[in-house]
Amino acid sequence: MISALTGLFAGVAVAFCGNFHYVIYGIILPIVHKIQGTYYSFWFPDSTRYIGYDPDLPDKTIHEFPAYSSILGDLHAHYVNIMFVVTVTAVVCGWALKQDPKKKERLAFLRPEFIVIGFMTGAFRWTNFWDFPIYYVVCGSVIFFVLLRRYRRNLGRFVLTMLAIAAVMFGVGYVAAMPFTMTFDQISSEIGLTHSHSLLYQLAVLWGLPALCLAGYVVRLLMERARAKNMTAGSDPLSQNAAKNMTGGLTPLSHFATPDLIMLMIGLCAAGLVFLPEVIYVKDIYGGDHYRANTMFKLSYQAFILFGMFMPYVLVRGLALGARSLKAAKAAAGAAAQPVEAAADVLPAGRAATLLSGKPATQPQAAADASDQLAPAAEQPPAQLAPSRRAEILRITACAIGAAVLLLTAGYTIKGTHDWFGNIFDPDLRIHTDASVFVSEYFPSDFEAINYMNSSIEGQPTILEAPGDSYTDYERVSVATGLPTVAGWRVHEWLWRGQIVELDERIGDCDLIYTSQDVELVRALIEKYGISYIYVGNLERERYPELNEDVLAGLGKNVFSDGEGTYILKVGEDLPSAEAPVQTESAPQS
Questions:
Q1: How high is the mean pLDDT in each 10-residue block of the chain (590 residues)?
Q2: How far apart are CA 221 and CA 236, in angstroms?
Q3: Taking the mean position of all CA atoms in its chain, how far away is CA 320?
Q4: Range list of H helices, 484-578
């Protein structure tokens, strides 16, 4: 039950929670301003545009997270790939939990899990390239430390096994990505040192909660190890030998339960992703004030996902350990005559990991339990139990507050949904999963034309519409029909293709087709790009006040017209001569 609840908590954290910025600026500040009789408005994108924007500094960054993408309906690669990065993380965790240090395994590097991890991380090179190095390192770090613990007495075998696994994963991934990489030119592979850094208090606002969880978790693991080591040192020789045999001499890695070690690696990797944009950045088309925006965006997005898996484990682990420890301390205080039953003042780490993983304890989990049993409670005076109880109560309180705050950040999804969509529970509001509905609401003059194209045009012919810049209304026809066009949003196309000369040439050619009076030039450009349909609507008239309608009319057949200025010309392989009469078809009845 605890493991299931922890998994559900992690799912909520990844999918619905925001960062702590929402708690401060979306809950606390509005209340403070209301008490003071002033007004303060929180706009949900503020939590993703904080560093460099509030206050306004020449270092504009992006730190988005899944809930923000969900509210926007953002189907960019970093969002679509969430289902795969969660899966690959689950695969490596599943492999780690099944490892048995006593079991000898031949050809360990050919485990099916490594094939799957290699394939998926390789596929990330064409689903979302940033996730390829990120999760290759995340999976590699888990595998590295689990194997290091397993082969700690045979480092040669450890090195060979690790190199073989790394080679298998990279090789499988390389082959999986070849259909894409063979014809893909990488945007940038240059890395530079940052010349600006985030304000510390802003980093604390965004990442303070997971940082506190990680720091507390590391301290707690070290305390548990030190306590188990002290108990071993204070016991009789026979018990010491037994404990050493079971724990491998209580080396740092051998003492940690496997789930604890896995989550430690995930937490540290997430922290590294937050730290990296403060030191380095990947050079791309963005410069000036936004030079490290894309690097921080892609790395911190995955940091948020990893922390979303990490924090629920840590918080629930702390609550479970604390509750059981209080019970053990109470039993020890009232049953000094029964030393075995009052064995420890805290729940052993191995037992906690068993609770959260839902699996029976295995070595070194059982070893950690056994080491705790080496110090009978009868040797602990009742006076020593009180500080332990106070520590456990403090621990439970801290974890409960942390869990409450983490769940409180899920209010971001409620607030953001209301900001973006209004009252979604109002039955009078039309809620759609059809992404083209915006056309009917904002571009009614284009709605019938686009419906005509969706219902009448077969295949994937190239259409021409007026090109525009990112986050404008242009490209609405290709978006709503799925048909290719000559040039998309300029900055996005620039980012994807890594160069701008050809892109600007395409945009210039689009301008010529719509404005040139040279019929032969327009005809040549239509043939150059294989254009089958030319779209003329209000945005085309807005961009091209000197629209060459007479020239265009002589080059094709009017297959749609709404009678109010929006029409579609069919051109292409058999372009009519300039003298041929224009053929038209009336608009179909809606």
A1: 91 96 96 93 95 95 96 89 96 91 72 94 92 95 91 86 94 93 75 95 97 95 80 54 42 72 96 97 88 95 98 95 81 58 44 54 43 36 54 90 97 94 79 73 87 91 92 89 91 80 92 94 94 94 92 91 90 55 40
A2: 25
A3: 28
A4: 490-497, 501-515, 519-529, 538-543, 549-553
